[in-house]
Amino acid sequence: MEKVKTFYNKAIFYRIIFIDGEIIKKEKMKIETKHNLGDELFFMNNNKIDNHIITGINITTDQSFIGGEHINIGITYVFGNTRVFEDYCFKTKEELLNSL
């Protein structure tokens, strides 16, 4: 069971582990994003440079136990109906062009 409390560019995740209905472990993890709601970012959209203001931030987590415990985190910025992974968004057009 995970509960999420979202701030502008931070999220606090709580992971609670139960055994036989008893809480045996409660962990807290803070996740920060590179950009904030309201920031204007540049990204590629249909092979064209596009820029929009962030209207939402989605943070997803999943866990794998291959070779020990590992938590994968995915951060996606929402621009109206468009969603773009954090790694593909840039503060300036020049940063985007340099990444290509």
Describe this structure as you would to a colleague:
The structure is a single chain. With 100 residues, the protein is mainly beta. Helices cover 7% and strands 61% of the residues. It has one helix at residues 93-99; strands at residues 2-6, 10-19, 22-32, 40-45, 48-53, 56-64, 70-79, 82-85. Strands 1-2-3 form a three-stranded antiparallel beta sheet, with no helix packed on it. A hairpin with a 3-residue loop joins strand 1 (2-6) and strand 2 (10-19). 9% of the residues are buried. The model is unreliable at 1-8 (pLDDT under 50).
In short:
The protein is mainly β. It has one helix at 93-99; strands spanning 2-6, 10-19, 22-32, 40-45, 48-53, 56-64, 70-79, 82-85. The chain contains one helix and eight strands.
Multimerization status: single chain
Radius of gyration: 17 Å
Span from first to last CA?
40 Å
Structure summary, number of beta strands: 8
Number of helices: 1
Main sheet: which strands, in order across? 1-2-3
Mean pLDDT over all positions = 81
Estimate the strand proportion: over 45%
Q: Main β-sheet: number of strands, strand sense, barrel status? A: 3 strands, antiparallel
Mass-distribution shape: elongated
Question: pLDDT under 50 segments (min length 5)?
Answer: 1-8
Which structural category fits the helices and strands? mainly beta
Order of helices and strands: EEEEEEEEH
Share of helical residues: under 10%
